[in-house]
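All the exercises in this workshop are built on plain-text protein records. An example says more than a description, so a record of this kind follows:
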Amino acid sequence: MGESTDSVYDIVIIGSGIGGSTLLNRLADSGARILMIERGQPLADSADARDSQAIFFDGRFRPQEQWLDGNGELFNPGNYYYLGGNSKFYGAVMLRYREEDFGELKFDEGISPAWPFDYAQLAPYYQQAEALYRVRGNEGEDSCEPSGAKGYVGPAVADETDIAGVRERLHRVGVRPFSLPLALDIDRWLARGNTPWDAFPDTGCGKMDAEAAALRPVLEHPNVTLMTGARVRRLHTEADGKRICAVELERDGEVERIHAGLFVLSAGAINSAAILLRSANAQCPTGLANSSDQVGRNFMNHNCSALLAVNPLRRNDSVYQKTLAINDFYLSDGEGGGPLGNIQLLGKVDGCMLKANAKAAPLFAMNWLARHSVDWYVMSEDLPSPDSRVRLDAAGRIVLDWRRSNMQAHRKLLKKAKAVMRAAGYPIVLSQPFDRRTPSHQCGTVRIGNDPASAPLDPYCRSFDHSNLFVMDASFLPTSAAVNPALTIAAQALRVADHIKLTELTQ
């Protein structure tokens, strides 16, 4: 395998997910020579993109790779490699962390630590991120809505008829459902096909993912270069180990080294940690940015369960469904106890989706269940732990040793959710936890902090060990909170980009 060198850029961004693409969007007008490197290719449109059997049962879009779990068992992860990263399959939910999530929160099983800055520092960037991702939402409905002006571009996506009925019944039993803020052009999505968007791949049909909202609009800048189909192997440092000098990648069977003045790692919380660990050298024997021994540690992924509320006498003919959430139990259990989490609608499930998780069940039974169910995603915070981690085995393979935490709160939230659904007229309530194969909310492996002894990154996501290295993806999150992380990643990316402009590009 040959090796070639060079091309010099001012900035190299590795990964085109929410973090990398949003950062590029803000930096594109700086005039800096910027290269974005993406392991995958653009996702082409096809009939499979709207076929639930192809997506959920056949695994048509899943990666051809194996990771190891903490017990040494191989599994195929739900980690997607396309232009736009995992956001190509996300549910387009753009919720802010609550203001309280930036402070210390106490749970029965531990502490969710305070961030190195408060909500007010990120609030204006939340507004800008909502505008960039063309989020539609309503103000004043959420029971613990964060303060500050919103960047919504229009009212929330409307409830379908059957979901409007669910909203009304929930109000009658005393909870406060609110409209999910969604990065979605619903008319464009449905024009391509009458399907949900949650976990369906976006092929340029109305979902505002990282590619559509942030990346594509700036690719015409002459100073921006996009390289796809390039798998980053490692980063190289200068002789003293203090600065990054090159990224080593493999493309079309050739190994290349690309040099730059500044490097941004945005490959996702699992792969960014793996790249840093894989880049160990004589000066940095435990990996780059890892003098704290925290790279790969504190992996969080949310505690999530699917909940099906079923009424055998009432059909749910919704197409997309995903417009409601409940935060009544987010900050407390309503009985003097601690925080529990968020409840939000899933995209409408069908029989093929259900059968993918119950292969022995007959399809006709799964179809009947899907037609009579309202489908919810019950989500609780996963607490950071140094023992929950990403590491590499002797062969260099990724080991995801996820240690679940805070399950007591999650069980309480499930109990609350089931009681609410039964009171709202759904006598049969079924639940099943999501398994380890779907790290869709992966975060925390290269966290920010004020102390280089306990955190690899400073509050602007710069490595304490290497002054020209930033990590800008869900890795930086010091806590997982109990809401979808995409908007918080985008807001921090805009904040970090402004910091890079001020500290790096004006010298």
